[in-house]
Design brief:
Blueprint: E1 2-4, E2 9-12, E3 15-17, H1 19-30, H2 33-67, H3 76-88
Antiparallel strand pairs: 1-2, 2-3
Length: 90
């Protein structure tokens, strides 16, 4: 991998890596092998939070749409008067 002095990014094998990503990889290389599994789980969890957020929202919206029903009330003033009569007896 060779550094590109123009934008602080390294390129190699068809990928561009930012300085932040390079720093993260250097830190990962310092971690003992028996701790890598734990770090990998954390990374997958964080990645899942970003990727699944939109699909979860869409699924939740679809569930809400299924629960939604059309109202049968056409005369809202009469409905309100009827409710008040039931509740307050006026």
């Amino acid at each position: 991998m060779k550094a590109d002095s123009r934008d602080g990014q390294a390129s190699g094998k068809g990928c561009i890596m930012t300085a932040l990503r390079q720093s993260a990889i250097r830190e990962l290389e310092k971690i003992p092998e028996d701790k890598i599994g734990f770090i990998l789980q954390i990374m997958q969890g964080v990645n899942g939070l970003y990727n699944d957020n939109q699909s979860e929202r869409k699924e939740a919206f679809a569930r809400l749409e299924k629960l939604r029903r059309k109202g049968s009330i056409t005369d809202y003033d009469a409905e309100l008067a009827s409710y008040r009569e039931e509740k307050y007896g006026k």
